[in-house]
Amino acid sequence: MPAETDLLTPPVAHAAPPVDLEALTDAVDRAGQALRGHQQADGHWVFELEADATIPAEYVLLEHFLDRIEPALQAKIGVYLRGIQGSHGGWPLFHGGRFDVSASVKAYYALKAIGDPPDAPHMARAREAILAHGGAEQSNVFTRALLALFGQVPWRAVPVMPVEIMLLPRWFPFHLSKVSYWTRTVLVPLLVLMALKPRARNPRGVSCAELFQTPPEIIRHWIKGPYRSRWGRFFKSVDAALRRVEPRFAPERRQKAIERARQFVIERLNGEDGLGAIYPAMANAVMMFDTLGVPPDDPDAAIAWASVRKLLTIGKDRAYCQPCFSPIWDTSLAGHALAEAEGVAVPSLDAACEWLKLRQVNDVVGDWADARPGTPPGGWAFQYNNPHYPDVDDTAVVGMLLHRNGNPAHVGSIARARIWVIGMQSRNGGWGAFDADNDHDYLNHIPFADHGALLDPPTADVTARCVSFLAQLDHPEDAPAIARGVEYLLREQEAEGSWFGRWGTNYIYGTWSVLCALNAAGVSPKDKAVRRAVDWLLSVQREDGGWGEDEESYADAPHGCYHESTPSQTAWALLGLMAAGESKHPAVARGVAYLMATQTVAGEWSELPYTAVGFPRVFYLRYHGYKLFFPLLALARYRNLQRANAGRVAFGF
């Protein structure tokens, strides 16, 4: 066995020449200048947030549902959808990904609604691919619900979810407080649609019957396995029972439930930022108001429609719809990168911190309080405004930035964030993103939850951020909460040494996050868990010096591996290694050299692969700012550690 001190520098196959500090400083300066060039006049940053074909396709079909069709806009969305069609003929969930039947059905139907002829080569290829994968009948629940709204499948194709759910007591096994915020906001208006079963106006009468292997009207078993547990079989029988009894539900009780759902939506309508500030919930709210007969010029209906329209990104030749905006996240990440690159006493960082401070949620007690009554608000949302749903992850990252900025005017904001974050810790020591103890796993087995993302349980990456935040503040009374968080993280480590990344791809993201937290919490770089993580990161470094990981690592792809390196994932690996005391390791120098070699003259990086996730195996994201924030942060940190001849990272992020 090697001596413990030898473990700090595991052997590697590749040596690395010393990094030229002058060239490195130039790379940092150019990246910093590029990032400052994206800053808005009021101090914040917001970059595009791109998903897959589903959101722009759904927007096209929403216009056809309402008969508010804008041909010029739809033509531009058509250009976008055709441009991201995969070589397999269908549409993937991320750049270069596998065929996905649900995304492909929506994209094909949207293009047909736009006016693409079914016999066009790209349409024929898509149709053949869909049929080869079992046809549109194999699509997921949300896709089948959309098809039901357009009369393309019968409503029995969708699991029974009675709107009377709105009236259930909190102790009931299924209650809105027991599911995630995104499920809540998407589901409530959808419950009204499922109860009233409206039919899209669809003025052009566009059908997609040719996408089915079996005519939908003769399919008898829409709700089927494979079941992941006995719970799945149990809930299948519950679905069958509900189908028999739902038609006999009392009309007056149904009307009361519909009204309860409507009031839920109105209370959380959130102005032009929209219900839950996420597209699916916002679009469902628009269709709910329309189905209830609310005129388009009614203030609630009008603002719901405006919130959807605000998500459109319209260029000269193409357009798409973002799933949401990410300004709080973008601004806090940009702030951390600039603080590392240029120091905290710069006007651009002061402006960013002031902008962030004004967006703290101090006066709205959101849905999170169902699990944590008595905890005062103090978090930040992910989007411009979303006061009912502040985000623990954002709150920790913003809190660390305000603390690092050192402005005495931020002390109160940091204190409120600290109290809220501590209050949101779950019973197992970890933190979820929006709710505490949102871990009723049996609910992920109901037929409606075929995406497997109904819940918001604690995860290693969010927990790591909270541990980092509390450790950076260094309040002695927070030691028990930090210790419980660290214990949770150590329990969650994979056998290979990595950690799962719920909100970023994937094990590289999770491992970076946890190594930062362990460093901030004072865990020794010699600790066995840290050494195993370092060894794993070193083992997945690519020949070019970078790191990359496939989104398919959420399924069956190897952890930490990809066919190319990416700037953001390389930066995460470097930041993780530096947090583990490895700033002088040759592998770190090689990773820094990769980032310097791939930087453009303008100071930025190119990154087409998606490196973030909404729901594993279902919905992935490409943050257009990641390829700039994280490489800048990594290069600047490496430069600072080399200049100071220091081995320890002083901050939690």
Describe the protein.
The protein folds into 3 domains: 1-37 and 497-505 and 513-653, Glycosyltransferase (Alpha/alpha barrel), CATH 1.50.10.20; 50-321, Glycosyltransferase; 326-492, Glycosyltransferase (Alpha/alpha barrel), CATH 1.50.10. Residues 1-13 have low confidence and may be disordered. By secondary structure, the protein is mainly alpha-helical. Strands 1-5-4 form a 3-stranded antiparallel beta sheet, with no helix packed on it. Strands 2-3 form a two-stranded antiparallel ribbon. It has helices spanning 21-37, 54-66, 71-83, 101-114, 121-132, 141-149, 181-196, 230-245, 251-267, 279-291, 299-309, 327-342, 347-357, 392-405, 411-423, 460-473, 479-492, 507-520, 528-539, 567-579, 586-598, 626-644; strands at residues 49-50, 312-314, 319-321, 612-615, 619-623.
Q: What is this entry, summarized?
A:
With 653 residues, the protein is an all-alpha fold.
What is the CATH C level class of the largest domain, in words? Answer: Mainly Alpha
The shape, in one word, is globular
Low-confidence stretches: 1-13
What's the alpha carbon Rg, rounded to whole Å? Answer: 25 Å
Q: From the coordinates shown, what is the CATH architecture of the largest domain?
A: Alpha/alpha barrel
Number of strands: 5
